[in-house]
Each structure stands twice: as structure tokens, then as C-alpha cells.
Amino acid sequence: MPRGRMIAALMILPAGLFFLAFFVLPLVRLVIAGGEGPDGWAGYGVALADARHLTSLAETLILSIAVTAATLVLGGIPGLFLARNRFPGRAFLVSILTLPLAFPGVVVGFMVILLAGRQGMIGQVSQMLGGERIVFAYSMAGLFLGYVYFSIPRVVLTVMASAEKLDPQLEEAARSLGASPWRVFLDVILPGLRPALIAAGAVSFATSMGAFGTAFTLATRIDVLPMVIYTEFTLGVNLAAAAGLSLLLGAVTWAALALARQAAGAGVAAAG
Amino acid sequence: MARNSAKRSLGFWLQLGLTLAVSGFLGVPILQSMLAGVTRNIFTGVLKSGLTLDWVGQVLTLYWPAILLSIEIAIGCLAVTLLIGVPAAYGLARAPGRLARLAEEALVLPIAVPGLALALAMVIAYNGWGGFRQTAWFILAGHVLFTLPFMIRAVLAVMASSDLATLEEGAASLGAGFFRRFFDVVLPNCRSGILAGALTVVTLSIGEFNLTWLLHTPLTKTLPVGLADAYASLRLEIGSAYTLVFFVLIVPLLVALQMLGRPRRMKALPEDTV
User: Fold this and answer.
1) Which residues of A fall within a CB distance of 8 Å from B32?
2) Local confidence pLDDT in tens for the 272 residues of chain A
3) Domain segments of chain B: what residues?
4) Which ipTM score applies to this complex?
5) Is residue A49 part of a domain?
6) Same domain assignment for residues A66 and A27
7) What is the pLDDT of residues B89-135, one digit of tens each?
8) How far is A181 from chain B (nearest CA, A)?
């Protein structure tokens, strides 16, 4: 089938050329540009050893892990619940829970401002209850809220799809053998959902690591890695730092998503 | 799976409570922003100040070029991803062996890297290239880079599940040439994948910010770039009205995507017995 193979290659060619021109070439240029600073290639070492960068990396990692854990619980339970129960209003809840799926990071940031900003709902309620006006939108806590907001729809969808494929007979067998609902959950349902949870968790981790729009909307003072890259590039004009941290960030999100794909084999992305 | 509410356990109600709380967390700010966008003065409240479309009008006058540019880029992005993405998916589906899998892995790589990093690389690579970097074409290239993997994957998924090789062999044995087979057999059989890919591409392109923020120039602002601008500098009502305009554009696309996904998901549901 040499002819068939040639046709296949020709069909891939335009996309391949585009990929070379706008992904491979820019990435190579980025690597080279990072080594052209005053310190030369050593600039990468200097940038990656910088205390401020290391703190930012650590903070971003902790934030992303916290977001992942919170999202798996807050998205996983409703996802499982909605997949396993039928009741009036269910479809409506599913649409609300999946609606923010395609919100850009900036819009999510605005949602956080509406919830926890200066005129936000949380502040108004806390003031009405006689307390202080609670405002935390413009800090790491606000960012946490935003990333959880952003990641819940993905987890809900992934868990729902996976829960619907679980074999109900396994559960019935466990129940007929006298297992309590809690034991059925731990020993039958949770293991069945494991690939979906790993996949969804990896996606929300990668998204939280790389997201930029939400942090940009909330405050320029939140020093998560993408914000540091942005300020190093635009204000510091420190190409070695911007390039080095970008490559590091890309490697981390790529690794997380590769793990997700191995677990689920589904189409996953680091949007936001 | 108790269907009778009398039989529902405490666990059911606890889970329902959490589901409602999470839905509120996601839904209330959406509702709030939509309401604030049509409220005369948000500080005195909807009831006292009344409703108005003034803010929406202001947003449309202030940001019409940005909104229009986003729609144009989304359409351009759709055209390019269809033109190069669908054939690529076909090539990947038909080519056997490790090389094709490797090509597939490479082509979907851009969605595994944060948009900010992609944009940074593009800006550095194309900075000296005369006018290209200043035009909307540069943004279009970024959007295609980011959305192409979604098109390829959506189409590839459908191609993998339908037995394309047999269908094509059948057509070939009847004397159909390659183009005949591609347009009359392959494309019609992948319609659902192409549609899902197209909706995803347009939705993502209209909302794209992470790449666009670095790629845009003062003359090539897109809708989300304008949003960031409005949130930072204008009053809450205008930010809300702008968000409302964005929702009006994006929600029909999302609903269409959900409806497209539903029949398949329903089939995967276990029969609702017990």
C-alpha cells in the first residue's frame, strides 16, 4: 500500500507544516533566545536558582495540588450523584455544573470578584450577619476559588461519563454479599472511578499550573508562575528567566497531562 | 438508584445538598453578572434603580471592533482547522504504524503546554518578521495552534470508531477514486466528529485569552482582551454587561455541544431499572 501511505502522508502534511512553523520553530527560538542574555547559557541556571522564582514555583505547586484535591471532592461527588440518580431538575443541575467549561480565565476571575470582591456577595452576607466585610478575591485564596470554579465542570463531566460505564452487576454482587453502602463505595465504585479521577485530577492540576487569565484579572501581585513569567518578559525583559520558567512550566503540565492520557486515553487539555 | 423518594436514604439527601451547593457556587455569580449587566446602579440595587440596556449599549459602542474581530478570528480559525485538521485526522487514521502515532502525539502537543508559554515562543520567533506580528493573522495563527488538536482529536475519535477502511474498500471496489471516496464516503461518515470539533474550535477561539494577551496589539484587540480591560478599568455594570454579551455568544455554542454529546452518553447509561 505505498500509494495509500503516500496519500496519508500528503493529508497530514499541511497540519505538519503549520505545526513546524508555529510550534517547533518558536520553541527552538525560545530556547536559543533564553541563552542569549548577558549570562549566556548560564542565565538559565541563574534564573532557575533565583529565590523568588523558586518560591513562586513552590507556591504554584501547592496551590495546584490544593485545587486538585478540592475539585476532586467538590466535582466528584456531584458527578457521581448525578450519574446514579434520576430526579426532576437533574438535567438543569448538569447544565449549570458544566456551563463554565469554556469560560476564559478572565471571566472566571470576574466571577471570583463577584463572589469575594469588594462588592462581592460573600462580603455582603458576612456584613449582614454582623461581622466584618470579608474580601479575599485579590489574593491566593481568590485564585484558589477561581481555579476550583474552573475545574469543577471538567471533573463533573469526566466522573459522570465514567460512572455511567460502571458495571452495576459488580455493585449488586457486593451488596448481595452483605457489603454496606460505604464498603461498596470504597471497594467497588471508587476503584472503578480511579482512571477517571486520575485523569480529571491531572487536568485540573495542569490547568492550575498554567492558567494566566484568572490571576491576571484578580491582581498582578499574585506571584504564581505564569504571572512571574509574564512580568519577567514584559517588565524585566529577562528572556532567560521567561524562557526557562516557560519551558519548566510546559514540561510540568505536559507530564501531568501525559499521566492523564495514560490513565484515561481521553482528550484532555490545559485550557484557561 | 432508588426512584421512589420515600426510599431515599440520608446519603441521597446529603449528596443532593452538596450538589446544590456546588451548583450555587458556579451558577450564582453567572446570574449575578447577568443581572448586574442590566441594572441601572448595582450599588443601590436592582429593585431601587431598575433595569436598563444602557450598559450593554455602551459595551457595544466601546468594544464593537473587539467583538467583531473575535468573531472573524473564530470563523477563520474554524476554516483553517477544517481545511488542515480534517485531512490530518484522516491521514493519521489511515496511516499504520508507530510513525503515525508519533505524529499524532506531536500534533496534539500544543494543548499540553500553557498558552502563555506558546505565545511567548511565538512572539520571540516572529518579532522581526515585519508586519506579520502586528496583524490579526498572527492571533489567528495562535488560535489555530491551540484549537487544531481539538479538531484532529474529535474527528479521529469518530474515524477510529467507524470502520472506515471497510467502507472505503467497498467504494474502491466499485471504482471510486480517492477524491470520490474522501468526499462521498469518509466525510459524511465523520459528520458528528467534524461538528463536535467545529463547535469546540469556535467556542475556544472566541474565549481564548492566555495566548491572545501576548499576541495582540492595541489595534488587534479581541473580545476577551477587551473583557480584561473592562474588568480592570471600568465600573462593575459595564464589566457585567460585557460578560453578558460574551455569554450570549458562547452559551448557544455550549448548549449545542452538550446536545451533541448527549445521545452518545445516554447510550452508555445502564438501563434505569431497580
Assistant:
1) 114, 121
2) 577 788 888 999 999 999 999 999 999 999 998 888 778 888 888 888 888 899 999 999 999 999 999 999 999 999 999 999 999 999 999 989 988 888 999 999 999 999 988 878 888 888 888 888 888 888 899 999 999 999 999 999 999 999 988 888 888 898 889 888 888 888 889 988 998 999 999 999 999 999 999 999 987 678 899 999 999 888 877 888 899 999 999 999 999 988 887 776 544 444 43
3) 30-260
4) 0.87
5) yes
6) no
7) 999 988 878 888 888 889 989 988 999 999 999 999 998 777 888 88
8) 9
Q: What is the DSSP letter of B271?
A: P
Give the per-residue pLDDT at B219. 87
Q: Are residues A215 and A110 in the same domain?
A: yes
Chain B residues within 8 A of A271 when measuring between CB atoms: 111, 115, 204
Q: Judged by CB atoms within 8 Å, which residues 87-146 of A form the interface with B?
A: 87, 93, 95-107, 109-115, 119, 121
The strand pairing partners of B39, in sequence order, are B51
Asked if residue A145 and residue A165 are part of one domain, the reply reads yes
Helical spans, DSSP H, in chain B: 10-36, 46-49, 54-80, 86-94, 97-107, 115-126, 136-161, 164-173, 178-181, 187-189, 191-207, 212-215, 223-233, 236-268
What 3-state DSSP class applies to B51? Answer: strand
Distance from CA of B218 to the nearest CA of A (A): 15
Looking at the structure, tell me whether residues A24 and A110 fall in a common domain: no
CB < 8 Å to B255, chain A: 95
- Closest CB from A97, A121, A230 relative to B116: A230
Query: In this structure, is residue A39 part of a structural domain?
Result: no
Handedness of CA B68, B81, B123, B204 (dihedral sign): positive
Contact between chains at B103 and A16 (C-beta distance less than 8 A)? yes
pTM higher than 0.95 for the full model? no
Please give the tally of structural domains in chain A: 2
Domain enclosing residue A5, as ranges: 1-34
Q: How far apart are CA B226 and CA B67, in angstroms?
A: 8
Shared domain for A2 and A91, answered yes or no, is no
Within a domain: A29: yes
Q: Are residues A257 and A219 in the same domain?
A: yes
CATH topology of domain B30-260: MetI-like fold (1.10.3720)
Distance from CA of A266 to the nearest CA of B (A): 9
Cell of A266: 481521553
**CATH number of the domain bearing residue A202:** 1.10.3720.10
State whether A50 and A28 are in the same domain.
no
Q: What is the DSSP letter of B190?
A: T
Provide the chain B residues 48-77 that lie in CB contact (below 8 A) with chain A.
none
> CB within 8 A of A9, min separation 6: which ones?
B91, B95
CB contact under 8 A, A246 and B121: yes
CA angle A198, A201, A204 (to 5 degrees): 150
